[in-house]
Amino acid sequence: MSWEYATLLFVYGTVIGSFLNVCIYRLPREMSLIRPRSRCPQCQQAVLWYDNVPLLSWLWLRGRCRYCQQPIAPLYPLIELLSGLLALHVGWRFGMTWSALMLALLGFAFLVLMVIDFYHYILPDVITLPGIVCGIAWAASPWSSAPLATLEASVIGAISGGGGLWFFAWLFEKITGKVGMGMGDMKLFAMIGAWLGWQSLPLTLFLAGVLGSVVGIGWILLSGRDRSLPIPFGPYLVSGAWLYLLYGTEIYRWYLS
Ligand SMILES: [Zn+2]
User: Fold this and answer.
1) Is residue 107 part of a domain?
2) Predicted TM-score of the model (pTM)
3) Overall number of domains in the chain
4) Region of poorest pLDDT, from 17-21, 44-48, 237-241
5) Does 253 fall in a domain?
6) Cα of 235 to ligand 1 centre, how many Å?
7) Residues 145 and 239 reside in one and the same domain
């Protein structure tokens, strides 16, 4: 990949990241994604277009609002940076195919779901439900190719993902008497199955469980987090799915050897 092309992918990614920030802020608050234009959450001043340039604006404003001087959360430039890297990585790893483009969109949706679940403990239906439908529709289209699922794997993936996690949650509740997972997690898992196929589900769930335990225990030990607080599972499901996508074959091969 030429550096011009890599730069272009990165820049496009950061621009999309800027829109993802809008989704992350507004979706859990049930606000429109289009109107009004971006405002400072503290002083409500509309953000000028030249203060809205991904990554750069945050740097030249030194992380503060132009009007009220209140700090702008570093999460904003972080999401823009991650989105740029995501676009770059998918382009580099999967090349210029329609499926790679869809994969990048899936990655952007994952990023939004991850952050919203982390802060608000919800996985909005407006992303997961169309996510399931689009995953199956894409698998049915003639442009679909690996690493995305075939139509059969996609349909089985959506059904067994949603149903499987429902069963898992039911079992967990029976054994421990606690509610471990929400409906949102089940819809997200169905969405993962719809895009990556049923083959992705066991390893995704396993990786999510390992990641969730490691991070959860670390969090309780290091920051003294109250262990009775719920730990959102969405970020780990999404991370597990992404790890499967990038290293699934290697992990399976390593495991079988
Ligand atoms: Zn302000």
Assistant:
1) no
2) 0.91
3) 2
4) 44-48
5) yes
6) 30
7) yes
Residues 134, 256 within the same domain: yes
How many A from CA of 56 to the centre of ligand 1?
18
Distance 119 CA to ligand 1 centre (A): 22
Question: What tens digit of pLDDT does each residue of 147-182 get?
Answer: 899 999 999 999 999 999 898 888 888 888 777 678
- Ligand 1 center to residue 64 CA distance, Å? 8
pLDDT of residue 227: 67
Q: Do 42 and 166 reside in the same domain of the chain?
A: no
Asked if 140 and 247 sit in the same domain, the reply is: yes
Distance separating alpha carbons of residues 9 and 18, to the nearest angstrom: 14
Q: With left for phi above 0 and alpha for psi between -120 and 50, is residue 97 left, alpha or beta?
A: beta
Could you tell me if 10 and 84 are in contact, meaning their C-beta atoms sit under 8 angstroms apart? Answer: yes
In this structure, are residues 25 and 120 in contact, taking their beta carbons and an 8 Å threshold?
A: no
What's the gap in Å between 117 CA and the centre of ligand 1? 26
d(CA 212, CA 207): 8
Angle, alpha carbons 194-199-202 (nearest 5°): 100
pLDDT for 182:
82
Q: What is the pLDDT of residues 91-113, one digit of tens each?
A: 998 888 898 999 999 999 999 99
Q: Is residue 139 a part of any domain in this protein?
A: yes
Q: Do 142 and 237 sit in the same domain of this protein?
A: yes
What residues pack around ion ligand 1 (CB closer than 5 A)?
40, 42-43, 65, 67-68
Q: Ligand 1 mean position to 37 CA, how many Å?
A: 14
Give the model confidence (pLDDT) of 43-73 as tens digits: 888 888 888 899 999 998 999 999 999 998 8
Q: How far, in Å, is the centroid of ligand 1 from the Cα of 62?
A: 13
Is residue 167 one of the residues assigned to a domain? yes
Give residue 164's domain range.
123-257
